[in-house]
Amino acid sequence: MKMTKEDIHQATRNLLLIGGYDYLTFAKLSQELGVTRPALYKHYPTKDELILAMMSAEMTSFLEDMPALIASKPTDILTVLLNKFLEFADIHRLLESLYRIDYETRQKFPDRMLALKQAHEMFKDYLDQLIDQAKAQNVFNNELPNEWIVKFLMNAIHMIEDRQNIEEIDIVKKLLLHGLAKHEDE
């Protein structure tokens, strides 16, 4: 089987999510992929270069559907937002690895570092647009700053242990829409 960059990126992603920057080694990665370390070095001379390339691909893929999503003006905007935040949770954890990349590598690839920063800013802009749509649909209070809604949603998704569990996602949605208090009409 021929190893692709996508295979390397997926295995890198998995190892980083398991144990972070220090957990990822070319030895573990080669074992995960069933290849030799020299085969990996042909693609990426250093772990830091690999992480940069993988993160660039992750952010590009993550942002791909955002313009169409915003243009579609979804009616169940809260579900859309929660799903995007659930998807972003892993990327956010992966982004933490960037802080461990050595100075020389950052200087060697300023375009990639800048592109990642711009992608993160683009995500914030897309979120603002989705939150503004949610406010227009009376899902969120117009008086709440978007930044606080983002912080609240980011923390809310961390309560979901099993991201495939629709029941847990629905509980978070109910908490977001109705709060903790019992309402008279219930």
TrEMBL record:
Keywords: DNA-binding, Transcription, Transcription regulation. GO terms for molecular function: DNA-binding transcription factor activity; transcription cis-regulatory region binding. Gene3D superfamilies: Homeodomain-like, Tetracycline Repressor, domain 2. InterPro entries: Homeodomain-like_sf (IPR009057), HTH-type_TetR-like_transc_reg (IPR050109), HTH_TetR (IPR001647). It comes from the Bacteria. It holds the Pfam family TetR_N. This is TetR/AcrR family transcriptional regulator. It comes from Vagococcus zengguangii.
